[in-house]
Design brief:
Order of helices and strands: HHHHHHHEEEEEEEHHHHHH
Helix content: 40-55%
CATH class of the largest domain: Mainly Alpha
Radius of gyration: 21 Å
Number of helices: 13
CATH topology of the largest domain: Butyryl-CoA Dehydrogenase, subunit A, domain 3
CATH architecture of the largest domain: Up-down Bundle
Oligomer: single chain
Strand order of the largest sheet: 5-6-2-1-3-4-7
Shape: globular
Largest sheet: 7 strands, mixed
């Protein structure tokens, strides 16, 4: 399997995602048949180390996948790209964990609820874990879960990621959302479950490109800084969705008539000008996304750790990419009349989905810009990652 063939195989599923988008929203989770078809393409091996049967394909190719699927159904695309990228996260773990998990099966399908909503208590051979986590994207089709917790009794507190089988957690039906409803990102609860020590990894050791996995595999794929990769994973479906909405706006201009006349809106100078501006804006947004991916890739190829100020800059830039994608769709909705708010209009769901998606913590420009501004002024970072 080469990268081009895998991307083409995943892209071939776009009509299937689009046809099932309404059903995913109704079910409040991705459609089983769609997720099965995705798995059969071998998509989840995309970032798995070659030594475990994976492909170690490029971040730029991954952006192409995210945008392609996001144009079809942003909710299902969000789940797929997150679960693909979480195999990359596992590849940053220590060698014992990778042998333990990838050695059993060449990929995982897992949510990554990394907010420290749990407590890990040290015991002989590992930790006992208790907590409840929101935003479990991927949990409805998962075989593992990744969660964040603080270690009890340590000063300063240590934020770590733990991984455990889906059978050891409770999935709580909590996902009642106005947007991104089709992700099925339900809550995850764990009560006093033992996790072996090897399935725990300090998140601070994974952030800059010098993780245990980077030192094991010694390839550029695992030397990329963590938070920018996570941010790009989440941003690419948003850009794909906005691209599709610009195309839908163009088609609507060719079909809609000016009220009270037989004149097509496409014949009006104002509509023509608006389409031109929107097309340039979405092209710029896409190019900004791809440029960030190139720079993040370059940090992996450099063999150097990515400094705090660079990672902070990436986070602000990714936040602006998502804000721009959302604002493009907002402007199209405003220019598309009341019919854009019909529940069966894809513009309406795109708007709700992008409004919800843009609230993800990784896109919080108030937090990220403060952190970046502090570093620009020579002050210490005030964020852990």
């Amino acid at each position: 399997m080469n990268e081009k063939n895998l991307i083409e195989a995943i892209h071939a599923l776009v009509p299937m995602l689009e046809a099932n988008a309404d059903e995913a929203e109704r079910l409040r989770k991705p459609v089983d048949e769609v997720m099965k078809a995705v798995e059969e393409t071998q998509a989840y091996r995309y970032f798995v180390p070659k030594k475990y049967g994976g492909f170690e394909f490029s971040l730029l190719g991954f952006m192409e996948i995210g945008m392609s699927l996001g144009a079809a159904d942003i909710s299902t695309a969000w789940v797929i790209t997150f679960c693909m990228e979480h195999n990359w996260l596992l590849s940053l773990y220590n060698q014992e964990a990778q042998e333990d998990i990838f050695g059993q099966y060449p990929y995982i399908i897992a949510p990554g609820a990394l907010a420290p909503k749990g407590i890990a208590t040290p015991v002989e051979g590992g930790y006992r874990l208790t907590g409840r986590w929101q935003w479990g994207t991927g949990v409805m089709h998962a075989n593992w879960v990744m969660i964040g917790a603080m270690t009890e009794g340590q000063d300063p507190p240590e934020l770590c990621m733990y991984i455990l089988p889906i059978e050891q957690v409770e999935v709580i039906d909590s996902w009642q959302m106005s947007g991104m409803a089709g992700t099925g990102s339900n809550d995850i609860a764990i009560t006093d479950v033992f996790v072996p020590a090897c399935r725990r990894q300090n998140l601070s050791s994974m952030r800059a490109g010098d993780s245990p996995g980077a030192n094991i595999h010694k390839t550029s794929t695992y030397r990329m800084p963590m938070l920018p990769v996570l941010g790009l994973t989440a941003a690419s479906p948003a850009v794909g969705c906005a691209k599709k909405v610009v195309e839908l706006f163009k088609q609507n201009l060719l079909q809609r008539t000016v009220y009270g006349t037989q004149d097509k809106l496409s014949g009006r100078a104002l509509a023509q000008s608006k389409l031109a501006h929107l097309t340039v804006r979405i092209n710029n947004t896409e190019q900004a996304l791809l440029q960030i991916a190139r720079e993040v890739t370059a940090w992996g190829e450099s063999g150097q750790t990515c400094p705090d100020i660079e990672r902070a800059s990436f986070r602000v830039r990714i936040g602006h990419v998502v804000r721009d994608a959302r604002n493009i769709v907002r402007d199209i909705i405003e220019a598309s009349g009341a019919s854009a708010h019909s529940l069966d209009n894809p513009l309406q769901r795109a708007m709700r989905d992008l409004e919800t998606l843009s609230g993800h913590t990784v896109f919080d420009l108030d937090v990220s810009s403060e952190s970046y501004g502090r570093l620009l002024l020579g002050l210490p970072s005030n964020t852990p990652l």
